[in-house]
Design a protein that fits this description.
Length: 178
């Protein structure tokens, strides 16, 4: 196996070994990523002046916290790109931070609707608004129908009352039998 890097320029070795990606946070929220960067250990860490302090949570787990403030760009090792976002067929389908933008990407993928809670909430609100408008329109139509039906019933009632009144006025009781 070829292990000799003598024919490569030193810059190529450095560039090859340390690839980074710039991630931009376009949202108004702070994004916190917990990335596993090393093998966890349960050993006590030797610190300056003390050997009895236990490891911190991040030291025990091998995780590191990356905080990206709103409208901020952060450079992260490229080996974590797939953990931050996985892209398939032009859609971000999974990842720790689908809302981030990869500044080095040739094509900016769209967040899959199943991951985009903001668009999902907006669409749900729009659907509820459409349902409410349709219900209001249906109620207005029903009120109009009922008002017309009430007017017809009043007219019919008046006609019946008029006929009853005229029939009563014309009514001559039969003579009483002795």
């Amino acid at each position: 196996m070829f292990n000799d890097n003598s024919d490569l320029a030193e810059d190529e070795i450095v560039n090859e070994s340390i690839k980074t990606t710039e991630w931009y946070n376009p949202t108004e929220d702070t994004v916190t990523l917990i990335l596993n960067v090393e093998t966890p250990t349960n050993r006590r860490k030797v610190r300056e002046g003390s050997t009895d302090k236990p490891l911190s949570y991040f030291e025990k787990t091998g995780n590191r916290k990356v905080v990206i403030k709103p409208k901020e760009t952060v450079t992260i090792l490229s080996e974590f790109d797939n953990a931050i976002q996985t892209v398939r067929d032009g859609f971000i389908v999974k990842g720790l931070a689908p809302q981030l933008v990869n500044k080095g990407a040739k094509v900016t993928p769209k967040v899959h609707p199943s991951l985009d809670h903001i668009t999902a909430e907006r669409n749900a609100a729009q659907a509820e608004a459409v349902i409410a408008v349709k219900a209001q329109a249906a109620a207005a139509v029903r009120i109009t129908e009922l008002t017309e039906e009430l007017a017809r019933m009043k007219a019919a009632s008046n006609t019946v009352e008029q006929r009853t009144a005229s029939a009563t006025a014309e009514f001559v009781p039969p003579p009483k039998k002795p």
